[in-house]
Amino acid sequence: MSHALLIRDLHKHYGAHRALDGVDLTVEPGEVYGLLGPNGAGKTTLMKVLLGLQRPTSGTLEILGRPVGRESLAEVGALIEVPGLWPQLTADETLRIHARLRGVPTAWIDPALDLVGMTGARQRKVKEYSLGMRWRLGIAVALLARPRLIVLDEPTNGLDPVGIREMRGIIRSLAGQGVAVLIASHQLAEVAQVCDRVQVLVAGRTRYEGPVDGLAVDGNVEAGFFRLVETADAGIR
Q1: Burial 62-95 (b: 16+ CB within 10 A, else e)
Q2: Are 207 and 228 in contact (CB under 8 A)?
Q3: How far apart, in whole angstroms, are the C-alpha atoms of residue 87 and residue 122?
Q4: Is 10 left (phi over 0), alpha (psi -120 to 50) or beta?
Q5: How far apart are the C-alpha atoms of 134 and 167, rounded to whole Å?
Q6: What region holds the ABC transporter domain (predicted)?
Q7: How far apart are alpha carbons 135 and 187 in whole angstroms?
Q8: Structure pTM?
Q9: Any idea what DSSP says for residue 104?
Q10: Does the structure show a pLDDT above 90 at 161?
């Protein structure tokens, strides 16, 4: 079986600035993989390159064994930053529009709503939703075409503790169905609870890849993460 996502020696340069500087990354089907790093580390840039929103300077990037393009991106669902939704529409109306745009059966709407726990709110207008409900609807949109890889940028940002727990459950449920999940976040504690493996990016370079526990210093994952970031920063300077 092909890797859900394979990245080798990926570079993205803006003039002299190297936003991505030789990143390697592999995500398997059914795996939750976390991208960690401080602001400006290159997490969002990597996701935009992956989704075809920006062209890489160089490197190899494959989705399910195929180069990034129309066919491979049809297997990807994504939610980057705050979901863009029409406030005057209901969840049901929103998903019907996206089903038409993606060319998928409207029969796929109910499973998507059920997975994110939005069935009971499907006839309410988006303007009435909390931030957590908007995130869940955004994920339902991303799941509508039944992707095999889903990409989430800061999925718990702005959520209250209940919303964070619900989001964690959704992510693990997706992995349990064989979907590969790639999460970018700067919230170490949250990533530690939901991810199988993580990569730490600093200034566009991979500083660590492996299980979360592998970051620990004297049993403290957070201390290990900050030591890694500070050491990388000192080397850059």
Answers
A1: bbbeeebeeebbebbbbbbeebebeeeebbbebb
A2: yes
A3: 13
A4: beta
A5: 12
A6: 5-228
A7: 17
A8: 0.89
A9: -
A10: no
How far is C-alpha 98 from the chain's CA centre?
20
DSSP 40-100: TSSHHHHHHHHTTSS--SEEEEEETTEESSHHHHTTEEEE-SS----TTSBHHHHHHHHHH
Residue with token string 């129309």: 70
pLDDT tens figures, 81-90: 767 789 999 9
List beta partners, residue 104. none
Query: Is pLDDT above 90 for 115?
Result: no
Of 151, 129, 140, 136, the C-alpha closest to 79 is 151
Q: How far apart are CA 100 and CA 104, in angstroms?
A: 7
